[in-house]
Structures
1.
Amino acid sequence: MNTVDAKEIDKFSEIASRWWDKDSEFKPLHDINPLRLDYINQHAPLDGKRVLDVGCGGGILSESMALLGATVTGLDLSEPAIDVARLHAMEAGVENINYECCSTEDFAAEHAATFDIVTCMEMLEHVPEPEQIVQACQQLLKPGGAAFFSTLNRNGKSWLMAIVGAEYILNLIPRGTHDWNRFIKPSELASWCRQSHLQTQDVTGMHYQPLSKTYSTGDNVDVNYLMYTTNADT
């Protein structure tokens, strides 16, 4: 499958046991999770919705959405990450959540037009053909459903901050986590969405303040950004 990079899967599988350690290399995901969760819930209230989290990893976002009342399916190709996600949900007593180890395309073939909301966060920059993931996300949505994406912009500033700064200077994440050439401009992602019958409704930036070590959202999309889209199919 063109959307599968075995090296990327292996890379995250090797550190899967540390997904829920807030002081590990996954600390940035824990730190931005409230921002992602609030962004999704503001645009598409989660309570009572059927949600698919594509590239769920160890379940940080999936579990948070379930706690807000959604019935959540988490999807990932890393079996160790899925095992960690299942174990954490069980220990936390979160019952309205299910995890599947499956490719997005295969899952879409079996569950087309099933979900009210599809999320795909910090995943597109790790696959060879991200536009195919976008297309599969649209296929999984009910008519009028909402899809949310987050990824990294591709420009000089994102190279300086997300590669040099985050990986080599601040040591926020392990070196080699990202490949700058796979970063995605908002215009590119919006184009793939249009081709897949997803209408872009909003684009918002996520920013890191090194001095306060905090994250916030804002208009600037130079580095990290969130995109809210809706399914145009009826």
2.
Amino acid sequence: MESLYFVGLAVMGLFAFIIFILVFRFFGFWLRARVANAPVGLIKMFGMSLRKVPVGMIVDNRITAVKAGLDIPSDPLEAHYLAGGDVGHVILALIAADKAGISLDFNRACAIDLATKGTGKTVLEAVRTSINPKVIDAPSANMGRTTIDGVAQDGIGVKVKARVTVRSHLDRFVGGATEETIIARVGEGIVSSIGTAASYKDVLENPDRISKTVLAKGLDSGTAFEILSIDIADVDVGENIGAKLQTEQAEADKRVAQAKAEVRRAAAVAVEQEMRARTQEMRAKVVEAEALVPQAMADAFRSGNLGIMDYVRMKNVQADTSMRESIAGGDKPRSEGTT
């Protein structure tokens, strides 16, 4: 009996020690939550510490939510922290949305917070942008360009700077396209609007036609933003693209013509070389035929078909022909006045 008595005392002492630790460690948090009418049990605080969740952060954010009229239990806050979210931003975003009359529940806010994690943006920024629209420059500074360039139908380039006023669309924020998509679509719309203008003068005279044309295309579809307005900040005249293209085309045509002429010249040279080769070939045949004449004459002498007098007469004819050719080649026309 005495041993059971001592065991009971030991168990009661251990239980009392645990209660003392809980009270000593979490009594300040518990009292602060109780006074703020946002109670969090000591057992829950002890469980948070075992799960390595900062108790003070959870209690403070629950107090902030309750004081703002949002009764959010500690369990969802703890779950969002364990999921890697920022509990403070979620609570502040919910408070801002509630004060501004924007419908945003806790789960949606947590989803937006987790979706924006690592992007440099927060759910609080999304709510603030939904309340106070922001202005986006098109093109943006990190694109390495200062203007959006288009070409009118008369070939004159037009340079445009635009400012896009957007507001966050919280229902489409998760899974919606970002600001880069808005800038790209606005740039595409501006280029298309300039391209449909008959002259660059029309763009300079009525720059608002660009805004109207771009807004009519519904560029914010599928994005996390709603486009409120597109304002043309600056319009300038660029290069004469049409004349430049015509010049380049003329230069290209000239090079093509030169290439074709070179082909024809090469073909002519090849034909000339071929004719020379054929001439040499024919001359070779003539020389070959002439080489057979003495042999034929010798055969004629041996066979008696050619006599000595025939040979002499042939030589006389050759000499007479040679003399006539030399005389004909040596005659030159006399100039007038000479005798």
3.
Amino acid sequence: MAEITPTGASGLAADAAADLSRELARHQGRRWLRRVVWLGLLVGVVAALWFWRRSAAPPPEPRFSVEKTERRDVLEQVQSTGTVKPLTEVQVGAQVSGRVVKVGVDFNSVVKKGDLLAEIDPSLFGAQVSQTSAQLKAARASEQRARARLATSKTALDRLERLAKEGIASPADVDQARGERDVAEADLLSAQAQIGQFNAQLSSARTTLAYARIYSPIDGVVIDRQIEPGQTVAASFAAPVMFVIAKDLSEMQVMAEIDEADVGKLAEAMKAEVVVDAFPGESFGGKVTQIRYAPNNVQGVVTYSAVIEVKNPELKLRPGMTATVTVTTREARGVLAVRNAALRFRPLPERDDQGKPKPSPPPPPVKHGQGRLYVVTGGERGQETAEPRVVAVGFSDGVWTVLTGSDLSEGAEVVTEQRESKTTKRFGLF
């Protein structure tokens, strides 16, 4: 068996250490290689995902929302509410007080002018007529007596005057006869005055008696009755309303309250449409017949009453119904129009690198009858540009405005809204 010397042992240890170092170095190289490979794979995956997301991402939203100009009908309308009423409505009352003994009509009764509606107990008024007639007869009898006395006194005076001329009668007798004649004349005048007084009283009593019978003043329909037989009416200070008669229900009127901002748009003879809740989907044609000057102020809101006459041949409209009135004040057929949102649009200010808006001068004001539109002129999607156009405008229906003068053609795209590119929030005026 060979003996291992110390020098040989140290050599073996050195060789083993060298082999171990080489083995460790190879193992360390493999670890770094694996790390590089994994890192490369990770970078490749991230790059692939980035390219995939970029290729699959939707295109950017356009910077502006646009609407096209159209040829259409534009109607300017004023809408209001009101109450349906008959054209002629008469409130029939009593001019005398008393107990109602007869009622000749009911609700919805058709009456003619002069028809008896009701009668108040005439007993008291008839007694007054009889009493005044008797007093008138007595006054006429007194007149006859005074007339006879006057004739007698005149005859006596004439005879005494002749006797006085012959010297038979004294002047005192003549004076006394003349005085009796004057008294007789005064009595006659008094009796005639009493006759006139009693004639007036009799006429008043007969009129009062006639008032006990209440007649229809017009041809029409009874739409309200407020008395019953046996009821007592009192006409001390004001005539109580007993009946309400509408002249003709085939023609009605609507009292519409027009806002002060819209009253300048209305004129007489304008067409109107009336809608009531009782007949949904059905409209009744009418026209404006009167716009009253008297203001109605309710809690600071000023309105003016407009009278709209409505045809009602089928008697569908009833007094008191709440109606919605639409009056067409102006209309244009087949004209070029643009949405009001485009006329109200104003572009957002440009922003600097910090996102703050850059100062820019406001656009010059437009004249009356003009408006400003913004037309897209080009640019990449999401970076479009728009330029202003001043156009002549007419009236509006609240959604569309008539273009009366413009170089825009039908179908031209105008801006109605702008999107903020950084925040993707919408801005604009509507």
4.
Amino acid sequence: MVMGKQQPTLEQQTACFIQRHNLFPKGSRLLLAVSGGPDSTCLLYTLLRLRQELGVELHVAHLDHQLRGKESGADAAYVEKLAGRLGVPVTVEKRDVKAYQKEHRISLEEAAREVRYRFLSDVADSVGAGCIVTGHTLDDQVETVLMHIIRGTGTKGLIGLKPCSRWLLDDRRITIVRPLLEISRQQTADYCKENELMPRLDISNLSLSPLRNRIRQQLLPLLKSYNSGITAALLRIAVIANDEITFLDSEVARLWPAIVEEKEGMLILNKDRLNELPVALKRHLFRAVVEEIIGNLKDIETRHIEEILAALDKPAGRLINLPGGLIFSIEYDRYLLGMENVDTCPYPVIGGEYRISIPGKTELPGWLVEAEIMKSGAMEKEEDDFIAYLDLDRTGNELKVRRRKPGDRFQPLGMVETKKLNEFMIDAKIPRTWRGRIPVVYSPKQILWLVGYRIDDRVKVTEETKKVLRLEFKRC
């Protein structure tokens, strides 16, 4: 009689997974995030049994989110008692998630997550833990992949959860490891039962309000009615996506020194070299540079990256405002990416007032201004934010350029009334730090052009225009 091969135990599976992915070296102190549910209770008990084999020290952390009244307090008491019985040091705290949600104007689910990881990061720092260990399972992986698809992910989102992730949180880099990613939720429940553990059950998991719960309770059962092997199919997608992203990561790392330069808190991208890349590499590189600046891609969606890609061939001066105060701007020979409080402004500092030679060339700090007079019929309008076509009879030839002044007003093209220049800049989403550098072309009568943005409606070229004044600002 041929005996079947004995299946590895949950502990053996976990040990192999940890070693295969090099999740932490021997001698590490691990901070275990234990909610008291079956998954995290299984995690604690498993790592306790593997502690000597892995050569690690354990510390348990539990946060009372104060969202479920007495139930939250009972969960905290359970974890504290369990850790005490097992002889593992534990830190239990309360934090006001609802107050945090109100202050930051985000969803309750997002607030709970951010507060929880800040707490875990604080505890990890205080106890000297090298990483935070969570009880995410294979089921969490499947749900995460589906959630990313629903939200319109790119290829990177199809990876779902990684065995090891590194985040930037409040200027601190934290490492999250997930040793149970090949273990199912049913396995953790069975493990707790076999070892006579009595984990807590969070009734909020039954609510259909969070997207993850709706995926778990409604979408996955429906998908299984179409394909009984949907779980395995989604996990295969995650593996394939990870392989492809790993290759793209290696290509971006190889190309990075030739394309990206870090300077004074911003990233400068070589326009010519970047535009030689295939679109797939461009897309991946922009994800990498955004992550380099803000530490994660939590609020950056595929549409934001596509918006950047669509703007690459736009004229100099164009800018894109991204989540978290991030700004992407276009110059003549490079792209800039940085936070709003970092000087990513493509405009040189203008001091004083300068007379523009008409016709002719005028040099001023950082700029070369070219003025040309042409007949209306000879005008071939170019789509460039730094070129303006004006009615010479309405502008006159006594033009100057300066920075904005308090009380400046003009009548933006297409409008019938004048508007404060500052209000226009706010409506146009021009970063505050840029506003004092944008050149303002004016005559003795009025402002004619906010360079890079809008001319005054009263000096636009019409059918009655006889002479056209063409102005072009070039960086030098």
